[in-house]
Amino acid sequence: MKKLIVIATVVVGIFTLWFYSRHPLQTTVTIQNTTFVVDLAVTNKEKERGLGGRDSLAPNHGMLFVYDHKEPYSYWMKDVRFPIDIIWIDDKTIVDITRNVALSDKPLEQLPIYHPLAPVNKVLELNAGTVDRLGIQIGELVKITQ
């Protein structure tokens, strides 16, 4: 009986890992009157991969990185194949914006590093130009569906 429980637990664990590797957890983020469907990057592996390896983001889609403490986290464009806007969030408030982060053909060790002016606990990545198109500004509130 114990052996059967162990096997069942392993099978469920493997299926769960497989499923979420192909179907990331999602939520919505609303800024002003625009709602974005975002993939959540919660684990270290998800944060490290980020948008790397993807060819694009659908309109009004993005990725939300969630941290358990505030820090001026650093980001780079490793393996990201399209330009993005980075919105730096402290709890529910936009504290900094990095617009139109371009692709780089530099070697890994020479990639530009981006970080906010203040510590944050969330980072939202959207298609480049979204911030300007919507007029998103520092100080605006962000609503995250939980």
From TrEMBL:
It comes from the Bacteria. InterPro entries: DUF192, Saro_0823-like_sf. Pfam families: DUF192 (PF02643). PANTHER family: UPF0127 PROTEIN MJ1496 (PTHR37953). This is DUF192 domain-containing protein. It comes from Candidatus Gottesmanbacteria bacterium RIFCSPLOWO2_01_FULL_49_10.
